[in-house]
Amino acid sequence: MTPHVMKRDGCKVPFKSERIKEAILRAAKAAGVDDADYCATVAAIVSQQMQDQSQVDINEIQTAVENQLMSGPYKQLARSYIEYRHGPRQPA
Protein backbone atom coordinates (compact mmCIF):
# COMPACT_ATOMS: atom_id res chain seq x y z
CA MET A 1 0.00 0.00 0.00
CA THR A 2 1.33 3.43 -0.89
CA PRO A 3 0.27 6.02 1.67
CA HIS A 4 -0.79 9.55 0.96
CA VAL A 5 0.86 12.49 2.68
CA MET A 6 -1.25 15.20 4.26
CA LYS A 7 0.68 18.39 3.61
CA ARG A 8 0.59 21.50 5.79
CA ASP A 9 -1.82 23.23 3.41
CA GLY A 10 -4.29 20.35 3.79
CA CYS A 11 -3.85 18.74 0.38
CA LYS A 12 -3.05 15.06 -0.06
CA VAL A 13 -0.23 13.89 -2.30
CA PRO A 14 1.18 10.42 -2.99
CA PHE A 15 4.03 9.39 -0.71
CA LYS A 16 7.43 9.63 -2.45
CA SER A 17 10.43 8.26 -0.61
CA GLU A 18 12.73 10.17 -2.95
CA ARG A 19 11.57 13.43 -1.35
CA ILE A 20 12.74 12.22 2.05
CA LYS A 21 16.13 11.28 0.64
CA GLU A 22 16.47 14.66 -1.10
CA ALA A 23 15.68 16.55 2.12
CA ILE A 24 18.23 14.51 4.07
CA LEU A 25 20.85 15.05 1.36
CA ARG A 26 20.25 18.83 1.47
CA ALA A 27 20.70 18.81 5.23
CA ALA A 28 23.83 16.66 4.88
CA LYS A 29 25.33 19.08 2.39
CA ALA A 30 24.59 22.01 4.71
CA ALA A 31 26.21 20.11 7.59
CA GLY A 32 29.28 19.13 5.59
CA VAL A 33 28.43 15.42 5.74
CA ASP A 34 29.41 13.47 2.62
CA ASP A 35 27.70 10.10 3.11
CA ALA A 36 24.98 9.58 0.50
CA ASP A 37 24.66 5.89 1.45
CA TYR A 38 23.79 6.80 5.03
CA CYS A 39 21.24 9.36 3.83
CA ALA A 40 19.65 6.75 1.55
CA THR A 41 19.54 4.23 4.40
CA VAL A 42 17.77 6.68 6.72
CA ALA A 43 15.28 7.53 3.96
CA ALA A 44 14.62 3.82 3.33
CA ILE A 45 14.05 3.12 7.04
CA VAL A 46 11.60 6.00 7.39
CA SER A 47 9.83 5.07 4.16
CA GLN A 48 9.40 1.50 5.39
CA GLN A 49 7.93 2.78 8.67
CA MET A 50 5.28 4.72 6.73
CA GLN A 51 4.25 1.95 4.31
CA ASP A 52 1.60 0.35 6.53
CA GLN A 53 -0.42 3.54 6.78
CA SER A 54 -2.98 4.78 4.28
CA GLN A 55 -2.36 8.41 5.20
CA VAL A 56 0.52 10.07 7.01
CA ASP A 57 1.04 13.64 8.14
CA ILE A 58 4.16 15.48 6.97
CA ASN A 59 5.07 16.20 10.59
CA GLU A 60 5.03 12.48 11.36
CA ILE A 61 7.47 11.84 8.51
CA GLN A 62 9.78 14.64 9.59
CA THR A 63 9.75 13.49 13.22
CA ALA A 64 10.65 9.95 12.11
CA VAL A 65 13.56 11.34 10.07
CA GLU A 66 14.75 13.41 13.05
CA ASN A 67 14.61 10.38 15.34
CA GLN A 68 16.64 8.26 12.92
CA LEU A 69 19.22 10.99 12.41
CA MET A 70 19.59 11.68 16.14
CA SER A 71 20.32 8.01 16.80
CA GLY A 72 22.94 7.93 14.04
CA PRO A 73 26.61 8.87 13.83
CA TYR A 74 26.19 12.39 12.38
CA LYS A 75 24.81 14.67 15.07
CA GLN A 76 25.57 17.73 12.93
CA LEU A 77 23.35 16.24 10.19
CA ALA A 78 20.52 15.80 12.69
CA ARG A 79 20.89 19.42 13.78
CA SER A 80 20.95 20.62 10.17
CA TYR A 81 17.78 18.66 9.34
CA ILE A 82 15.98 19.99 12.42
CA GLU A 83 16.95 23.55 11.53
CA TYR A 84 15.77 22.97 7.95
CA ARG A 85 12.47 21.61 9.22
CA HIS A 86 11.78 24.55 11.50
CA GLY A 87 13.03 27.20 9.09
CA PRO A 88 15.17 30.22 9.80
CA ARG A 89 15.09 31.52 13.33
CA GLN A 90 13.81 34.98 13.98
CA PRO A 91 16.08 37.27 16.01
CA ALA A 92 14.91 37.87 19.57
TrEMBL record:
<dbReference type="GO" id="GO:0009265">
    <property type="term" value="P:2'-deoxyribonucleotide biosynthetic process"/>
</dbReference>
<dbReference type="GO" id="GO:0005524">
    <property type="term" value="F:ATP binding"/>
</dbReference>
<dbReference type="GO" id="GO:0008998">
    <property type="term" value="F:ribonucleoside-triphosphate reductase (thioredoxin) activity"/>
</dbReference>
<keyword id="KW-0560">Oxidoreductase</keyword>
<dbReference type="GO" id="GO:0031250">
    <property type="term" value="C:anaerobic ribonucleoside-triphosphate reductase complex"/>
</dbReference>
<protein>
    <submittedName>
        <fullName>Anaerobic ribonucleoside-triphosphate reductase</fullName>
        <ecNumber>1.17.4.2</ecNumber>
    </submittedName>
</protein>
<dbReference type="InterPro" id="IPR005144">
    <property type="entry name" value="ATP-cone_dom"/>
</dbReference>
<dbReference type="GO" id="GO:0004748">
    <property type="term" value="F:ribonucleoside-diphosphate reductase activity, thioredoxin disulfide as acceptor"/>
</dbReference>
<keyword id="KW-0067">ATP-binding</keyword>
<feature type="domain" description="ATP-cone">
    <location>
        <begin position="3"/>
        <end position="92"/>
    </location>
</feature>
<keyword id="KW-0547">Nucleotide-binding</keyword>
<dbReference type="Pfam" id="PF03477">
    <property type="entry name" value="ATP-cone"/>
</dbReference>
